[in-house]
């Protein structure tokens, strides 16, 4: 990192200038305004996208110094200290390994690769290079979620008995929805398991503890869709007519979980359910946690609210709806008081802050590549269980930031 007048100015490289790449960029730009005490002011150095117009957009609109169609030029740039990898799943492993080998700290979107093997490859490369990593598990950064983690860790809910996690979206509910890369195993790997299930299991493990065993079933609701050429649209596109192609991965998953670890969630059981074809929900990403002394629930569609039942003796009061406030996580960085709402972009700003603070060595509360491996291990085990009908044990992942697990966040950890 270069230094100027005692203020760190990490050079930022961006790989893929789509919606998520733009969001990463806005998050970097917001860090010095939102967290001035960090003394970190990122510089937008280089951006890459295979579509030349997007690479030029990164220069003309986003403010990067240079644009290119070859991501390797971003990694070779000596002014680049940190890299955001926002390309499609099938490129994550290649780019993550390349970033590590180039000595660049990287922030990568999930899932990291098309399966457990690719996630482990990236983790090994990051460990060998000693680079800091952060993974795009943005829902864990909601201040209301951070407060749930405190409630669980402090024993306010007692011993956790059971968990219910539902990640339902309707972005592919229309059978005319385009057959983008997300529906093809060669490009995406799994379907809704990797897309939404990876987020859901990360939320479960961050709040409750590591998943030790899973049994699952999956289904593909819409088996054929109209073909969309790569790079010509998004998975939200709806097409009339045209050539049809096969959907190669699952639209829906239901699973039973057992939790391990050593905290209040050890020994808990739960359910995890995800769908990308639900008719009705837009982003119903929620979790309910039940303990011997209370319970709590949260839903991303109302991300600034919690429903809390505290104490068995409070049965006459029922659930209390609580608005997030400046005592919850980083809420006070964005809004002055309860009732004022934060949004999705703010969660990415928190993620960027945690990443850059870990790179600077001032804090280690970021998600890491070990968390991506843990998530991928769940996806792999759920696929195996869906095929066999049996319970499948998950491997222990060193360095994971799961609740009740040893190891500090923010540092690369060896992954077997």
What overall geometry do the principal axes of the alpha carbons give?
Answer: globular
Total of domains: 2
Radius of gyration: 21 Å
CATH class of the largest domain: Alpha Beta
Q: How many distinct helices?
A: 10
Summarize the main sheet. Answer: 9 strands, mixed
Count of DSSP strands: 19
What is the second-level CATH architecture of the largest domain? 2-Layer Sandwich
Distance between the termini: 30 Å
Order of helices and strands: EEEHEHEHEHEHEHEHHEEEEEEEEEHHE
- Which strand order do you get reading across the main beta sheet? 18-17-16-15-9-14-13-10-19
List segments where confidence is low: pLDDT < 50 over at least 5 consecutive residues.
2-7, 407-416
How would you name the CATH homologous superfamily of the largest domain? Dihydrodipicolinate Reductase, domain 2
Query: How much helicity do the residues have?
Result: 25-40%
Which topology of the largest domain does CATH recognise? Answer: Dihydrodipicolinate Reductase, domain 2
Tell me the β content.
Answer: 15-25%
Overall mean pLDDT stands at 93
Structural class determined from secondary elements: alpha/beta
Explain this structure to me?
The chain is built from 10 helices and 19 strands. It is globular and about 60 Å long. The chain is α/β, with parallel strands linked by helices. The model is unreliable at 2-7 and 407-416 (pLDDT under 50). Helix 1 packs across helix 9 and helix 4 runs parallel beside helix 5 (116-129). It has helices at residues 19-34, 52-62, 71-76, 89-101, 116-129, 143-153, 185-188, 192-207, 344-360, 369-388, and strands at residues 2-4, 7-9, 11-15, 43-48, 66-68, 82-85, 105-108, 133-135, 160-169, 211-219, 224-226, 244-246, 252-259, 269-275, 283-291, 294-299, 305-310, 320-323, 392-393. The chain has a 9-stranded mixed sheet with strand order 18-17-16-15-9-14-13-10-19. It has 2 domains: 2-138, NAD(P)-binding Rossmann-like Domain (Rossmann fold); 142-341 and 364-393, Dihydrodipicolinate Reductase, domain 2, CATH 3.30.360.
């Amino acid at each position: 990192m270069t230094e100027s007048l005692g203020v760190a100015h990490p050079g930022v490289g961006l790989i893929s200038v789509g919606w998520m790449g733009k969001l990463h960029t806005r998050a970097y730009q917001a860090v010095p305004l939102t967290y001035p005490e960090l003394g970190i002011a990122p510089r937008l150095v280089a951006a890459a996208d295979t579509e030349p117009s997007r690479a030029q957009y990164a220069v003309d609109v986003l403010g990067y110094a240079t644009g290119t169609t070859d991501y390797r030029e971003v990694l070779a740039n000596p002014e680049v200290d940190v890299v955001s990898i926002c390309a499609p799943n099938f490129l994550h492993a290649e780019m993550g390994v390349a970033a590590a080998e180039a000595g660049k700290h990287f922030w990568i979107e999930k899932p990291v690769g098309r399966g457990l093997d690719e996630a482990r490859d990236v983790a090994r490369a990051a460990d060998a290079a000693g680079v800091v990593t952060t993974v795009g598990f943005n829902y864990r950064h909601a201040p209301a979620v951070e407060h749930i983690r405190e409630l669980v860790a402090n024993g306010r809910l007692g011993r956790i008995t059971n968990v219910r996690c539902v990640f339902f979206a309707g972005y592919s509910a229309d059978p005319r929805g385009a057959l983008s890369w997300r529906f093809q195993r060669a490009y995406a790997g799994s379907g809704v398991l990797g897309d939404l299930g990876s987020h859901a299991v990360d939320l479960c493990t961050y709040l409750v503890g590591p998943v030790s065993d899973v049994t699952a079933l999956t289904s593909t609701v819409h088996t054929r869709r109209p073909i969309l050429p790569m790079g010509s649209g998004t998975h939200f596109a709806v097409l009339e007519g045209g050539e049809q192609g096969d959907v190669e991965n699952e639209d829906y998953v239901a699973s039973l979980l057992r939790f391990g670890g050593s905290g209040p969630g050890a020994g808990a059981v739960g359910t995890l359910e995800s769908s990308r074809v639900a008719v009705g929900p837009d982003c119903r990403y929620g979790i309910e946690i039940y303990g011997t002394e209370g319970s709590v629930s949260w839903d991303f569609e109302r991300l600034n609210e919690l429903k809390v039942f505290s104490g068995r003796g409070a049965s006459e009061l029922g659930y209390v709806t609580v608005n997030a406030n400046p005592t919850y996580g980083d809420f006070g960085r964005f809004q002055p008081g309860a009732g004022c709402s934060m949004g999705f972009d703010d969660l990415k700003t928190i993620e960027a802050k945690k990443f850059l603070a870990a790179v600077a060595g001032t804090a280690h509360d970021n998600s890491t590549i070990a968390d991506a491996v843990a998530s991928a291990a769940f996806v792999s085990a759920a696929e195996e269980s869906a095929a066999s009908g049996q319970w499948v044990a998950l491997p222990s992942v060193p360095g994971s930031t799961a609740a009740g697990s040893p190891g500090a966040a923010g540092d690369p950890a060896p992954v077997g």
